[in-house]
Amino acid sequence: MHKIAAIAISAAAVFLAAAPALADDPVPQGPDADTLNLGASWDVLCSSPGDSSYKFSIFYNSGPSGAWRNIGYSVYDFDALRPGDGHSHPLRFCSGGASSPPKGSGERIKNNAAAAENSHYKYWSRVYYNSGYKGNQDALAPYQSTGQFRKVYNENASFQWTYN
Predict the structure, then answer these.
(1) Is-contact 91 120, C-beta < 8 A?
(2) CA distance 108 to 90
(3) Residue 28: pLDDT above 90?
(4) 39: left (phi > 0), else alpha (psi -120 to 50), else beta?
(5) Opening angle at CA 139, ends 135 and 140, nearest 5
(6) What is the pLDDT of residues 92-133, one digit of tens each?
(7) Is 110 within 8 Å of 104 (Cβ atoms)?
(8) What angle do CA 62, 64, 66 make, to 5 degrees?
(9) Strand 124-130 and strand 158-162: pairing?
(10) Which pLDDT belongs to residue 152?
(11) Which among 2, 44, 4, 46 is positioned nearest to 24, based on CA atoms?
(12) Which pLDDT does position 24 carry in this prediction?
């Protein structure tokens, strides 16, 4: 009996130790990624950029400033995430500050983003003009940020992690 309990505890420890690796290794794409980008907790999606385990932050205003959203996985179309409930949902900037929410709070991200930060140590982040990772793009190297997109300023539709 003690041996079975020890095995169960060891298995749980391995699972819990591996769980944070999802945000550091953004592999899932497609429907799995949609579920993770919409279904994560507020602490992951809307905590201050840099404090989230999701390593890409996209901002409503240049600077970067205004409302933001932390993204952990590639997004094929900012306006049509499909988290498995049979419906599509737009990805929105986080709403914060009840008395004075930042500009852009609750707005759709598609065609409304002005700046971004890539806090990942390994992967490049790319924001594309069109859905499906197509068209002009702004690429950020690991640990790079941009105060204002050069090619997709307020004209952005998808996001993807790449190796370079």
Answers:
(1) no
(2) 6
(3) no
(4) alpha
(5) 165
(6) 898 775 567 889 998 999 999 999 999 999 999 999 999 999
(7) no
(8) 85
(9) antiparallel
(10) 98
(11) 44
(12) 47
What pLDDT shows up at residue 120? 94
Q: What is the pTM of this model?
A: 0.74
The amino acid present at 39, given as its one-letter code, is G
Task: State how far the Cα of 21 lies from the Cα of 61, in Å rounded to an integer.
Answer: 30
> In 3D, which of 11, 160, 163, 161 has the Cα closest to residue 77?
160
Report how far apart the first and last C-alpha atoms of the chain are (Å, whole number).
50
Two tokens at 24?
A: 């550091």
3-state SS record for the chain: CHHHHHHHHHHHHHHHHHCCHHHHCCCCCCHHHHHHHHHCCHHHHCCCCCCCCCCEEEEEECCCEEEEEEECCCECCCCCECCCCCCCECCECCCCCCCCCCCCCCCECCCCCCEEEECCCCCEEEEEEECCCEEEEEEECCCCEECCCCCCCCCCCEEEEECC
How far is residue 110's CA from residue 58's CA, in Å, rounded to a whole number?
Answer: 11
**CB proximity list for 150: less than 8 A, separation 6 or greater:** 138
Question: What are the strands of the beta sheet with 145-146, ordered from one edge?
Answer: 65-71, 56-61, 115-118, 145-146
